[in-house]
Design brief:
The chain folds into 2 domains: about 230 residues, Peroxisomal Thiolase, Chain A, domain 1, CATH 3.40.47; about 110 residues, 3-Layer(aba) Sandwich (Peroxisomal Thiolase, Chain A, domain 1). The chain is of the alpha/beta class and about 350 residues long. Helix content is about 30%, strand content about 20%. It is built from 10 helices and 13 strands. A hairpin with a 3-residue loop joins strand 12 and strand 13. Strands 1, 2, 5, 6, 7, 8, 9, 10, 11, 12 and 13 form an 11-stranded mixed beta sheet that branches. It has a two-stranded antiparallel sheet with strand order 3-4.
Length: about 350
Amino acid sequence: MTSNLPCITGIGSVSPYGTLSGAIAPRQLQPRLITAWPVAGVRRAHLVEPFRPLDVVPGLKTRRLDRLSVWSLVAASLAIKDSGIDLVQMDRSRVAVVCATGLGCIELTEAFFGSAAAHGWYQTDPIIFPETLGNAPASHVARHLDLRGPNITVGSKGIAAECALLHAASLLRNRQADLVLILSGDTLTRTSYEWYETAGMLSPACFNSEPIMEGSGFIPSEGVTAMLLEPAVSGHRASAFHSYANLRSGLSASGADPATVIRKVLNELSPGQGISCIGTAYGVGQTAMASLREILRENMTILPPDAIATGLGDTGALARLSVALSYAPRGVPILLLGGSAAAGFAALLMELP
C-alpha cells in the first residue's frame, strides 16, 4: 500500500437510513408515502425521517437555515466524530471543505422566488437571499467548525460528488490542506419531484401503495453524506483509527466514452483480479458493464446501486461508496462509476486496506 494515498478516515450521513457515523449498513429501503406536500394520488420517495439536529450537534442554531445546510452540519459533525480526529489539536487553516450539490439550497431558493413572484422584488425577505446560494452549506460548516482552509462547492452535472473527491485528493497531494471534509447531497422538494414526474423519469414504484421492484425509472431520494480525507500517513489519527479506503493515485479518468474511461482506470490492475463495482446515477449502464467484462474476463463482484444512490443523481457517489464500504470484500478494489450520456462519464478506483 502506497503511503501517500489520500485516505478516507471518517463517514457521517443524514439519509433515509437515519443519522449515523461510520459506513452505512446495507439493508433494504422501502420508499415512504409523501405527506410533506399535497400530491395527486399515491406518491412515494426515499425521505429523511424527521429528527432533532440538537440531539446530534448541541447548540446548533437552525431556524434560518435550509435543510441542506442543517444536514451538512450534522453529517460533518458525525464524520469528524467517526474519524477520531481532534480538531482542537489541528491547524484549522489547513482543514478544507469541499461540497458537492446538484440543486443547492432549493427549498429557500423556491421560497425566495415564490415571494418575488407573489409580492414583487421589493417585498422579498433579504435575510433569505444569502441562504439560496449553492455554497451556503459549505460556508456554514466551515464557520460552525472554524475551518479556515480552502472552501469549494462543486455543481458538475451528473458527477458532482466524483469531482468533489478528486478536488479533495488534489488539495492533499498539492499540500494545500492537511485534512479535507467532503460533503455531498441534495434535498427533495415538491418542485423537483414534480419535474421528475413530468419528465417521465420515475419508477412505477413511486405510484403504488405497495412497493414494487420492477420497471424502469428511479425512486427519488434525499440526504447528505460526509467523509474525511487525509494522507495515509498522518499524525491526526486517534489510537483506535481505522482506514475505510484509499484513493488510488492517478487511477481516475473522465470522458464521453465509458469504455475508454474504464480502460484508463483499470490499466494497472492484474488480469483476472476481482473488483467491486458501484453503478452510475441511474444504474450501471450496459456499455460500462460490457467493457468491464471485456477487460477483466474473469469473475467479479458487482454491487447493484441501492435506492438512495439511484435517487441522488448528481451527488450520490459518496452515499454509494459508504454503502459499498460496509460489505465490499477486504482487499478488493472498488470502482466508482458516475455520469450519464449527456453529462459525460467518470471513474475512480478505491482500494481497501
